[in-house]
Design brief:
Elements (H helix, E strand, L loop, with lengths): L1 E2 L3 E6 L6 H14 L4 E6 L4 H10 L4 E3 L6 H12 L4 E5 L16 H7 L4 E6 L6 H12 L5 E9 L2 H15 L3 E6 L8 E2 L2 E2 L8 H15 L2 H9 L4 E2 L16 E6 L4 E3 L2 H9 L2 E6 L12 E4 L1 E2 L5 H6 L1 H12 L4 E4 L1 H6 L2 E4 L2 E4 L6 E5 L5 E9 L11 E8 L1 E5 L7 E8 L7 E6 L2 E4 L9 H18 L3
Parallel strand pairs: 2-5, 2-6, 3-4, 3-5, 6-7, 7-8, 12-14, 12-15, 15-17, 17-26, 18-20
Antiparallel strand pairs: 1-11, 9-10, 13-16, 18-19, 20-23, 21-22, 21-24, 24-25, 25-26
Helix pairs in contact: 1-2, 1-7, 5-6
């Protein structure tokens, strides 16, 4: 298929320069004009992606050159982007930052793969003419990259804006499309290494409206649209993603815990389950009192520690969940979902009761225990993976797992090839039909993930005669 939807990629010289602010503002501005904006986020990111989805009013999809092949990225981008009138891709880290000295898998390389014009965000704090040198360096560093415009951030005053704009445009020929003045307060609530998840922040919608107004006033939106429209047509292999061919039965019900505690789900993962014939049943573990009939349960990551009091108070659902798991309900649990299965979460000097299905406690540390891309080798058969399977994903957790005396500690089924996992050596906790891991999987890089979960749900349905 030929893909020609207008598109831009928003990048920066480094993390923390303001590309998320600009991305959110542009997405909401264009959505307010009635445009269907399809947002994408580079790399393994849930939080920025969720904010982008909120701003655009459309799901945000991840494009990860480390986890996905170039063909997979192009097909996903074209398939999803063809349904919109504007595609917005937010990069990560610095423009040329990748996993090695060559900057492979960087935002620059992704933009070239997508034939996308680049908007470069530059933080102008305590700088003037040096900004032109930085912009010129980015232009010369990779002549094949189309840096189509620059947006300045943290501008002090009108003179500051004029001086930097003039020097950049004269030195590089790249137009400055906007200048965002320094704000007294950061409009984005920050926590850990990034933004607080929007569904934990009560002023999310108010802040997005303020950001949109700010960007609409201080960025040339007509020039942004013109830049996006200049993107050339690209060829993609397929206009749609074929359904999964699996031996599972219809009407499988797979539960998804989704609330303020558990919110880290790639939309592609949920779509893969639905394409395999599953009905997704969303459950609020904080307030929902009754567990619906299920054939499997998928618990994603999140921040269960911030909701630990409320989770522990929902004794009715916890009791039903525990009983179902003990009776063989298949459970795939990632990071925060893994923590929920344990006895307790320790956070800020308090100990909070969780499901008590596995005899582990999870103690929150002040700094990340595991952070970055991760690779696991499955060394013994699990409910969802066979021995010998190699899994690539990412981890980001502050919790340290501590095994306790008890019969339900399970076994660790995976060897850590890269990353930290449970202890730098092992991961993949198996107990009954549970597979608990710190590794976050993306369905587009591991088709066996959805197949395994669907098959296990089918087996459980057969055993319990639900269907």
């Amino acid at each position: 298929m030929s893909f020609s939807t207008p598109r831009i990629t928003i990048v920066a010289t480094r993390g923390g320069s303001g590309k998320t602010l600009l991305s959110l503002g542009i997405a909401r501005c264009l959505a307010n004009k009635g445009m269907k904006v399809i947002p994408f986020k580079k790399g393994p990111d849930y939080i920025d992606a969720a904010w982008l989805a909120k701003a655009a009013g459309q799901p945000c999809y991840n494009l990860d050159p480390y986890l996905m092949s170039s063909e997979t990225i192009l097909n996903s981008f074209c398939m999803r982007g063809q349904n919109g009138s504007f595609c917005l891709v937010e990069g990560n880290r610095g423009l040329f930052d990748g996993v090695d000295e060559q900057g492979s898998r960087s935002s620059a390389e992704l933009a070239k793969l997508l034939s996308s014009p680049v908007i470069l965000v530059m933080d102008a704090t305590k700088a003037t003419r040096t900004m032109a040198a930085l912009a010129l360096g980015c232009k010369i560093f990779d002549p094949d990259l189309n840096i189509a415009g620059i947006v300045l951030n943290n501008i002090a005053n009108t003179r500051h804006k004029r001086l930097i704009t003039t020097t950049i445009e004269q030195a590089t020929g790249i137009p400055v499309l906007g200048a965002v003045h320094r704000l007294k307060e950061d409009p984005m609530p920050m926590r850990h290494l990034g933004i607080t998840p929007y569904n934990e922040y009560e002023n999310a919608e108010k802040n997005l409206k303020c950001i949109a107004a700010l960007i609409n006033e201080q960025v040339n939106m007509e020039a942004i649209l013109k830049t996006a429209a200049s993107a050339p047509a690209i060829e993609c292999a397929a206009a749609s993603q074929p359904p999964l061919h699996t031996p599972v039965k219809d009407h499988l019900q797979i539960g998804i815990l989704r609330d303020a505690a558990f919110q880290f789900y790639y939309p592609e993962n949920l779509e893969a389950l639905e394409k395999g014939g599953a009905e997704l049943v969303f459950i609020d573990a904080i307030s929902q009192q009754t567990l619906p009939p299920l054939h499997a349960l998928y618990i994603g990551g999140g921040f269960p520690e911030t909701q630990a009091v409320r989770l522990s108070q929902n004794l009715s659902l916890m009791k039903q969940l525990s009983a179902a798991i003990e009776n063989g309900l298949p459970v795939y649990a990632e990071c925060g979902g893994l923590m929920y299965l344990g006895r307790h979460i320790h956070w800020k000097g308090m100990k909070h009761l969780m499901l008590q299905v596995i005899d582990w406690d999870f103690i929150l540390q002040d700094t990340p225990v595991g952070h970055g891309y991760c690779t696991l080798e499955i060394i013994q058969d699990t409910p969802f993976y066979k021995a010998g399977t190699l899994l690539k994903g990412h981890e980001f957790h502050y919790s340290r797992p501590v095994p306790l005396d008890g019969r339900n500690s399970g076994s660790l089924s995976a060897r850590v090839v890269r990353g930290h996992g449970f202890d730098g050596k092992s991961d993949g906790l198996c107990y009954k039909n549970i597979f608990g891991t710190y590794l976050h999987i993306h369905a587009l890089s591991h088709s066996e993930w959805a197949l395994g979960l669907l098959q296990k749900a089918s087996d459980f349905a057969e055993q319990t005669r639900y269907l």
